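Replying to the earlier thread about multi-chain prediction with a worked example.

Input:
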Amino acid sequence: MITVNLNYESATSLYIQLYESIKKDIINKSLAPDSILPSKRSLAAHLGISVKTVENAYSQLLLEGYVYSVEKKGFFVSQLSDYRTPSVRTRPYHSKYQDEAYLVDLKANKNSMEMFPASTWYRMMRETLSYDTSRLLDTVPFNGLSELRIAIARYLLEFRGMTVSPDQIIIGAGTEYLYTRLIQLLGRNTRFAVEDPGYNKIRAIYQSNEVFYEAIGLDKDGIRMDFLEASDCDVVHVAPAHHFPLGLVMPITRRLELLSWVNEKKDRYIIEDDYDCEYRYHGIPVPPLYSIDVRGKVIYMNTFSKCIAPAVRISYMVLPEELMEKYISTMNFYSCSVSSFDQFTLAKFMDGGYLERHINRMKRFYVKQHNDFIEAISHSSLSEKSQVIEDAAGTHFLLKVTTSLTDNELIQKLREKKILISCLSEYCEHHNPAYDATLIINYSGITAQQIQYFVETLNGIL
Amino acid sequence: MITVNLNYESATSLYIQLYESIKKDIINKSLAPDSILPSKRSLAAHLGISVKTVENAYSQLLLEGYVYSVEKKGFFVSQLSDYRTPSVRTRPYHSKYQDEAYLVDLKANKNSMEMFPASTWYRMMRETLSYDTSRLLDTVPFNGLSELRIAIARYLLEFRGMTVSPDQIIIGAGTEYLYTRLIQLLGRNTRFAVEDPGYNKIRAIYQSNEVFYEAIGLDKDGIRMDFLEASDCDVVHVAPAHHFPLGLVMPITRRLELLSWVNEKKDRYIIEDDYDCEYRYHGIPVPPLYSIDVRGKVIYMNTFSKCIAPAVRISYMVLPEELMEKYISTMNFYSCSVSSFDQFTLAKFMDGGYLERHINRMKRFYVKQHNDFIEAISHSSLSEKSQVIEDAAGTHFLLKVTTSLTDNELIQKLREKKILISCLSEYCEHHNPAYDATLIINYSGITAQQIQYFVETLNGIL
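Result:
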C-alpha cells in the first residue's frame, strides 16, 4: 500500500501532497511499472482522507500520464524511461554578461536624458490612461493604430513634403524589426545593395537572415551608379538626406539617376533611410527621395527612437501601394509589435505639436554640442594633428587624425582610458585607405567635461 | 535675370521663397542647364534683398545639388533628367482596408476588457512614471530589462517549477518576433517540425521566412514519434501543456520519448510553446517539458498577451545556455523591441503579486464562460446535432457538428449571420476527415447574449 506523510498544516492541499508523493514513487520506481494502484476507496480509507482527495490526485496523475486507466480495472503505473529532474538553482542572480563602464561613450549616440520632454510625454501618457482606456486593450491593427498612422502621414506631408496615405504606413517596434519584415516581403532571393561605408546594422541584419547583399562604394555624390549597375542587385538601401557615417547629402542629379535605375526593372526598389533628416543646422532639411518618386519605387523608413528617445521603440515604413497590397495578402498575420499605449501616447504627442517643438529644441542643443566639441578641438593642440570633417547636420562628425597607429590600436588605447569610440573603417565592408585613422564622434549625449577629457586624452595618445 | 515674387508677409522666410522659386525654374527648364546664375551681389541688388538672403538660397540649392559651383566663376544650373513631382493628395483619409463588423467573434479570442486589472496596471504605470524616470530613457539591454527578466525567472520557478537564470531570458515584442529571431539563431537550414493540426501562425512564419517545415500528425498523446523520427527534422515545435486547437495534454511517457529523441543528436531542439498553461480549471497546471530537460535542449516560449491583454506586446523566450552564448556572439546587435516603460510596468505588476491574482481571477471567469457556453448548448436542441469536445482548460473548446455542409459552407453561412468562427480543418496542413465539421469555440471575450445568438443561429443552420 502507498505510504505518504500528509501534512494537514501545510499550505499545499492534501490532494497535491498525495499526487506529488505518488509521482515521486513512480519516478524512482518504488511503484513498479504496470502495477495497479489501490482503488480510490481503499486508499482513502487507508490514509484517513476523503475519496474526493484521492480522486483529485489520481486525476492529475492521469492527466500528466504518470498513470493510465483500464476500464473496470483501475489505475496502473506508466512505464517511464530514463526520467531525470534538473537540480534547482537557488544562488542569487549575478549576470554573466556585464557591460564595461566607460567615462566617455562616443559610440552609442545616446540622446541626452535632460533634453527629453519628460513632463509633456508623461502628460500624454496620463491623458491616454484617462481618456482612451476603452480602446487601450483592443487588438491593434496589424499595421498600427490609425490615430498614429494619420499623425505620421500629416507629419510627413508638412515636414517632408511627402504625400502618403495612412494605409501605406506600417508601424513596428524598431527599424530592425521592419527590415526583417521587408526581407520577407521582397523575398529571400532579392539581391540587396548597401552603401560602403554604411550603417553596420543593415549588413548585420542581412547576414543574420542569410540573404545576399553587396556593399557598393561611394563617390562624393553617394552610391556609385556604375558599381550599382554592375552589381545585378534589385533593391538598394540608401540614406540620401544624410549618409551615415560620411554625412554626404545625395544631390538631385544622383537622385534622378537612382530613380531612373529603379524604374528600369519591375522588381527594383529603393529603401530610403531618413533616420536623422530633422537635424540640419543651416537651411532647411533636405527633401526625401520619396517626394520625387512618381512610380511607387521608394520604400521610406524612419524611427522615433532617434528624435525622441531610444526607449521609445516606434519606427515606421511607408510602402508603395503595390507592395502594401502584397503585404496585406501575405503578411498581415503578423501582429503589430508596438503596444497600443505607446502608440496613443505618440499620436497625442504629434497631434499636440510637441514633436515639432521637441525637434527644434533638439536641433538648437545639437548645434551647441557640435560647436562646443569642434571649438574644444580647435583650442587644443589636437587641432594640429587632426582635421574635422563635418557637414553641420545630424549628431556626429568625423575626425581624421595624423597617427602611425592602426585603427584597432587607436580604439584600444582610447578604451584603456575608458573612452568608447568607433573608427570609420569599422563601417566599411571593403578596406579603403582613404577612410583610415578617422574617428566617428557621436556627440549627442556628451557633456562639456567629457569633451575636454576626450580631447586631452586623444591629444596625449597621438 | 531671375524674377521672383517675394511675399514679405509670408511665414516662409525670404531665402526659402527664393530657393523654391529658383528650384522650380531649374526643374521646368526656365533656367537652362549649365547656365550661370547671377552673382549673389547682383541678384540681391536686383531683388532689393540682402546678399545673405541670396547666399542662403544658393547654399540650399548647392546642398541639394540643383546647382553646382565652379571656383572663381560662380554657380551653374545642374543638368536634371526627367524630373517629376508626384501630385499632392489632399482628400481626407478613408482607409481602403476596413474590417468587417461581426456580432459574434469566436475566432479572435480577445480577452474580456472588463477583466483587465486596469486600475492596478495604470497605478504601476504611474509609479513607473514617478520613480524610474532616470532610467526610463536609458538604452535597454538587447535581452530586456534585468528587473523584468528577474521577475520572470522568479515567476517561472514558483509557478512552473523551472530553474532559469535571468541571463537565459530574451524579452521581445510578441512571440512572432521571437520566432523570427529563433529562425536566424538556429540557422535557415534547420528543418522544423510542427504539429498537424497546430497553431497556424507558426507555419505562416516559417513560410514567410522560406524555411523548411514539416507538419507532423498526432495521436492521442500528441505528436507521433514514428513520423517525427522519419521526418529528418531537427527542431520540433510543441505545446505539451495544452495543444492548440485539440486541447491535448502530452503525457509524461510521450514527453520522455520526445526528450530521448532530442538527445540523440547535437543540433536537435524542442520549442515548447506554453501559451496558456495557467488556465487549467481542475487540478494544478501541467508542468512544462522544460522542467524535466536536463541537457539544455528545450527552448521555452511564452507571452503576456494571453494572460494580461493583447495590447501588452511582451513575450519572452528561455534559451538553453549554449544557444544563449550563440545568440550573444551573433545576434546581440538587435535592440530590444519592447519599450523600457512597458517592461518596468510589467516587472512592478509581477513583483507586486498582481499577475498571480489576475490569473486566478481570469481562471474563475473563464470557468464560468466555459460552463455557461456548454450549458447553453446542452439546453438547446443544438445538443442533439453536436458534441462538445473539451478538456477543462484554456480559452476554447471544440464543437463537432452533424451536418452535410462542408466546413467552408458552414463558416460562410455563419458569416452571413455576422458570426466569425474557425473550423478545426483550417488548422490542418493535411486533410483529415476525422477533423471535419468541427468548430473552434474561442469563448474568452464572449457575452451571454452572444452565446445565445450563436447557439440559436447555428441550430437554425444545421
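The longest strand of chain B covers residues 213-219.

Feel free to reuse this layout for your own posts.
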